[in-house]
Write a structure and sequence with these properties.
The structure holds 2 protein chains of 2 kinds. Chain A is an alpha+beta fold. Chain B is globular, with a radius of gyration of 21 Å. Classes of the chains: A alpha+beta, B mainly beta. The interface between A and B is large, with 48 and 58 residues.
């Protein structure tokens, strides 16, 4: 499997498991503990109905490929305590459910036997300032670099009329790559939907009107171990 | 140039405004600039910039990316304004900290990773060159540095995963001359996660031919577990041969940092009195220490705390490393402030990319920042509008207090220190008139005694500012200029006491002088 970086945590709040601790091909009893708020996934969207844990995955509906998506969160109790105490550094260090510093909704894709066949990450726009959300598209670059910059095949996603760039470039692309028995997909988007702009016709600021998101999937190639 | 001179000292030899008459300063004229437009890079932190003055003309890029030339002899009358460069830019990026001048060109950095040449007489865009790829997170925040016929550009964009880089362009053609990646190679986890980016202009030592740049944090800033090792050369100072682009030496302040430090602030080049001694590279580090390094080889000379009460390390050893540092360790055994009694010590919002200053008159370096280590005896914050406001007393209040420190750079001795009621992001300006000027975030300009840092005079403007003042002379008369402008989305201001609550997006250049 792809090499994952691991190191001793600097803080107790950083010692918990992350999505990178989940190996493709793992069985249910091999999944790390320490996650919380397991819920039926919604194809990378907001988590749905809460379930007792990964083992209750069959309470969720399988997708078209027969995979059950279970979303989860990292244990972020220490972050909440730090927020209550207004400890800026502790809030930052105990970053909650993030990947490379970006808030995400992580989920596992399990087959009917409870074997991990895939992982999914989507940037999580809930409760973050638009300034930070504006960076979400950039997670795609980090994920691509993580699995090696070479070999990605990228294509633009279909354009909807009247979409406009946020910046001098419009980003709406999906990149794929095969590596180490897995199929990888990174989809990154940064643009204004039709009708969106940062200022209205009267010059008032509308800072939240833009799309900035990344969606990542890694799925085990059928037949690989 | 952006930092006043190649040594980054932000020091002026002008004495027309001095301790004896500074209390008589009045606003001589003001120039409203900018205006809210779509896609201009103005949503946050768009203000920490410095205008340039040459031959009585003021060149300034405003928070909305407009570049203007003003006539300092005609109360700032507009000569030209270029509004074309940033109208399609990402409003969440910084418009740029300032400009550079080269022959008959004004050199402008765009947040989309382009460098522009503007005709100094007409303001027309003559040439534009793309330096880095904004789709890879690359942006330019720091002012370009012109050395001879080279334009040196430091790349930003850490929050978007950009890989730090420094480029040199031919100032006449825009052709690339050399390129330095600030992060060490692919075997380094930091090399793919990004970081080590630049947000403050570098300096230049004509004696060695080296240009000196500070680099920011590795990515992710607050999670060392996914970037084991030292993350070389993030959080470092790099000395690059201006001619060849060779990296001559480097010094990493906090290898394998776990606390989120970022060392992209000013690196002053200090020449000992008499001018014959070797240059010292001086830096108020985000890790709470003041460092002095040998300017020729980068050898460590001195480090002393400029923030009282540091706990993350027991000290700095003879090699300049934190005492707990172990070469080759995946994670360093530094203390994290998160679980100590001083959770934000040194201040997470403290000295980072703020501009520091060095006065050859006093031989002192001045660094601005915030405290964060104070837990007891916090002075009550006294605002004009709400003397009894209790905002000072929440648990993180000390972290939001501005701090200015004067250090003797050869010994590292702290000679004076001063707290302010509000954040101090502006940096400092030192003058031969015995003064240090700075501004605090609520919009107050302070004139301080350059030896004691006691306030000699201050005045409050009608909006926020975190902009370093500049001083200049026109026809023999000294002026002081400061940009005032609040921005509803300015991220650098951590809290909003009553005096800061009414800020609106605006951008006004105020020019002060003695009564005419």
């Amino acid at each position: 499997m792809l090499a994952l970086f691991a190191a001793s945590p600097a803080l107790a709040c950083q010692g918990g498991p992350t999505v990178w601790d989940i190996q493709l091909g793992s069985k249910l009893d091999e999944l790390p503990g320490g996650f919380t708020d397991h819920a039926c996934g919604s194809n990378g969207g907001p988590p749905g109905r809460l379930i007792a844990g990964f083992g209750a995955f069959k309470e969720c509906k399988p997708d078209g490929e027969g995979l059950y998506e279970v979303a989860f969160r990292y244990d972020d109790e220490q972050e909440f305590i730090a927020r209550a105490l207004e400890q800026s550094r502790a809030v930052a260090l105990c970053e909650g459910t993030k990947a490379f510093g970006f808030p995400v909704v992580p989920s596992v894709l399990l087959d009917a036997e409870g074997v991990v066949r895939g992982l999914r990450l989507s940037t999580d726009p809930r409760g973050i300032e638009p300034a930070d959300r504006s960076n979400d598209w950039a997670l795609g670059n980090l994920l691509k670099r993580r699995y090696g910059e070479d070999g990605w095949v990228c294509e633009d996603l279909p354009e909807i009329p009247a979409e406009t760039p946020v910046a001098r470039f419009k980003l709406k692309e999906a990149c794929t790559k095969s590596a180490d028995g897995a199929e990888l997909t990174v989809q990154s988007e940064y643009y204004h939907r039709p009708g969106q702009s940062f200022t209205d016709e009267f010059g008032n600021v509308q800072p939240n009107l833009f799309v900035s998101q990344t969606r990542f999937e890694i799925k085990q190639t059928p037949g690989s171990k | 140039m952006n930092l006043g001179s190649y040594d980054g000292g932000r020091y002026s030899g002008l004495t027309g405004i001095n301790r004896d008459n500074v209390s008589k300063l009045v606003v001589r004229y003001s120039v409203p600039l900018g205006g809210l437009i779509e896609g201009s890079g103005n949503f946050r932190d768009a203000l920490p910039l410095s205008p340039l003055v040459e031959d009585g003309f003021i060149y300034i890029v405003d928070g909305w990316g407009h570049v203007s030339k003003l006539d300092g002899r005609k109360k700032g009358e507009l000569v030209w304004q270029n509004k074309d460069l940033q109208t399609d830019l990402d409003s969440w990026l910084v418009a740029g900290r300032g400009l550079a001048l080269y022959r008959n060109f004004v050199i402008v950095a765009g947040s989309d990773g382009r460098i522009h040449w503007l005709d100094k007489d007409t303001g027309k865009t003559v040439r534009s060159v793309q330096v880095g790829d904004p789709k890879q997170g690359y942006t330019i925040e720091a002012s370009p540095l012109v050395v001879g016929d080279r334009i040196i550009v430091g790349g930003g964009g850490a929050e978007r995963g950009a890989l730090g880089r420094i480029d040199a362009l031919d100032a006449n053609t825009g052709s690339p001359l050399w390129h330095v990646d600030t992060l060490e190679g692919a075997s380094n986890p930091a090399g793919f996660l990004g970081g080590g980016t630049i947000s403050q202009t570098g300096t230049y030592d004509p004696k060695t031919g080296l240009t000196i740049w500070g680099t920011g944090h590795p990515n992710p800033r607050y999670n060392p577990g996914v970037r084991p090792g030292d993350s070389l050369h993030a959080n470092s100072v790099l000395a690059i041969d201006t001619e060849t682009g060779d990296l001559r030496w480097h010094f990493q302040y906090t290898p394998g940092d776990i606390n989120g430090f970022s060392e992209d602030g000013t690196h002053l080049l200090v020449t000992p009195a008499g001018g014959s001694g070797e240059t010292v590279v001086a830096h108020f580090a985000n890790n709470g220490y003041f460092y002095g390094l040998d300017g020729k080889q980068g050898a460590f000379r001195v480090a002393t705390p400029h923030v009282v009460g540091l706990e993350w390390t027991a000290g700095i050893d003879k090699a300049g490393h934190p005492i707990e540092y172990k070469a080759g360790a995946t994670t360093q055994a530094y203390k994290s402030g998160a679980w100590q009694n001083h959770p934000d010590c040194p201040n997470i919002k403290g000295t980072s990319s703020f501009a520091s200053a060095y006065s050859s008159r006093t031989g002192l370096a001045y660094g601005s920042g915030a405290d964060g280590c104070l837990m007891e005896n916090i002075p009550p914050i006294k605002t004009e509008s709400a003397p009894g406001w209790l905002g000072a007393y929440y648990s993180g209040a000390a972290a939001d207090m501005g701090m200015l420190t004067a250090v003797e750079p050869l010994s590292g001795a702290v000679k004076a220190q001063r707290l302010f009621d509000f954040p101090l992001h502006a940096g400092a300006l030192a003058t031969a008139g015995g003064l240090v000027f700075t501004t605090t975030a609520e919009g107050r300009l302070h004139a301080l005694n350059d030896e004691t840092l006691e306030t000699l005079w201050s005045t409050k403007f009608g909006s926020l500012t975190d902009v370093p003042p500049i001083t200049f002379s026109v026809d023999g008369e000294q002026f002081l200029a400061v940009v005032v402008g609040g921005n509803a989305y300015t991220g650098g201001l951590p809290y909003r006491p009553p005096e800061m609550g009414l800020s609106e997006p605006l951008f006004v250049l105020l020019v002060l002088g003695l009564p005419s």
